[in-house]
Amino acid sequence: MKIPEISRPQSWTTLFGMAYGAACVVALPLYMKNGYVGLIGGKFSLLLGLGIVGIIGVVALLLLREPLQQRRFRESGAIWLLGLCACYGIATYMQENKYTALWGLFGRNNGLLSLVACTVIFLVMRFCLDQKSAYFLQQSIVISATLVAGLGWLNYWNIDPFNVYFSMPAEDAHMFLSTI
What count of other Cβ atoms lies within 10 Å of the Cβ of residue 8? Predict the structure, then answer.
């Protein structure tokens, strides 16, 4: 009787990329720190955390001598994103109010750090996932985005399946757009 050979699992790079991508796909749309109030700040913190975890993960993979996906940097679209980050960096340096340029407007968190975190997440997934895994993750993003958009439409028609609106304090109810 021949014992079936157990196939080697995917590389650590691909496994990290899939787990990291799953965290981005699942955690970002569903994370609500304290209901709708403070939603953007909570998601911004999570976005920065995912960026930091991505950097630490890639450094660990490089220290373990795990190969990253061999992709030409110029063809990955990353060159334009890094150029945009450089432009934002120059604009941040030249701004009179550097704090707002770095962190973004109060309550919006749309400054340089947000762009850099999104760029890090893009680069980590781009260079850690093989083509098959990237396609699977892409389909997961499309499905979850469709579900989130559907929830937004339900909220638009005053249908709140997660009971977020009715559990809000009355003084915060004017801020309700949707549960997403």
Answer: 6
Question: Is 103 within 8 Å of 109 (Cβ atoms)?
Answer: yes
How much is the pTM? 0.71
List, in order, residues 6 or more apart from 176 with CB less than 8 Å away: 36, 155, 164, 165, 168
How much is the average pLDDT of 105-113? 83
Residue 107, number of CB atoms within 10 A of its CB: 12
Task: Please state, in angstroms and rounded to a whole number, the distance separating the CA atoms of residues 62 and 68.
Answer: 8
Give the pLDDT score at 7.
Answer: 42
- φ and ψ at residue 36, rounded to 5 degrees: -75, -30
Let me know: does 46 contact 27? Beta carbons within 8 Å. yes
Q: pLDDT (tens digit, 9 = 90+) per residue, 18-48?
A: 888 888 877 766 666 565 556 777 778 888 9
What's 7's DSSP letter? P
d(CA 56, CA 48): 12
